[in-house]
Amino acid sequence: LYTLGETDWPQLRGLGDLFVSISPHWRAYGIYVNNFQVAREILFECMNKCEKFTQFLDERTITLSTDLNMLLSLPLNHIAGYELILKKFLLETEEGSAENSSFLQALILTEETSNFIANSLSKAGNVANLERIKRSIIDLPPNLMIEISNPSAHYHGETPLEFAPPNSKKMSSGKIALFNHMAFLLASSNRGFQFKHHYELGKLTVIESEL
User: Fold this and answer.
1) What percent of the chain has a predicted confidence (pLDDT) above 70?
2) Digit-coded pLDDT (tens) for 17-33
3) 190 burial class (0-12, 13-18, 19+ CB within 10 angstroms)?
């Protein structure tokens, strides 16, 4: 396909129709994109936790001349490549001809798929962050697990901090994880993060520190 414009064009006919006929199968991108970011997060977590696994991947990268992260991205990159090729072929066919019309239709379908992938990746990034948070907290209460598993839940970020629990002067290290409607206070431990408290953002007030 990538060399078609240099070799067989313009003798080849029906390429636009071929793209149109296979376009319904691009719905599979919806499933793939939803799992793509989660897969990448898990991959990087495993690489950080296991040196032998990272060494194995490095060895395979040298052998295959590509890495696992690139392979995960490859299906998404193909659509962008198709779009460029179809634009090139569209310009090289007679305007108004049947072949030109089929390329135009194929290009529209490809652009729609590209836009869908871009929008879905943004949502998938949010899902991946929520899944990572759930995996990192040792004892997250079930009701809060359900809360951040809700499709309307949105992750905003995390901030490391030192804090003292109520009625205690001992400082602890941890972080606060912020979502669209609440925040989790988490303490660091050698097994992950321990859940300490959650705050409903709509019920909080902020007092400026004098420090």
Assistant:
1) 92
2) 888 888 888 888 877 88
3) exposed
Name the residue type at position 191. Answer: R
- The string of pLDDT tens digits covering residues 92-130 is 888 888 888 999 999 999 998 888 888 877 777 787 788
DSSP string, the chain: -TTHHHHTTTT---HHHHHHHHGGGGGHHHHHHHHHHHHHHHHHHHHHH-HHHHHHHHHHHHHHTS-HHHHHHHHHHHHHHHHHHHHHHHHTS-TTSHHHHHHHHHHHHHHHHHHHHHHHHHHHHHHHHHHHHHHHBSS--HHHHHHHHSTT--EEEEEEEEE--TT----EEEEEEEESSEEEEEEEETTEEEEEEEEEGGG--------
Global confidence as pTM: 0.55
Radius of gyration of the chain (CA): 25
Cα 93 from Cα 103, distance rounded (Å): 9
- Reported as half-sphere exposure (CB side, CA atoms, 13 A), residue 113 has a value of 28
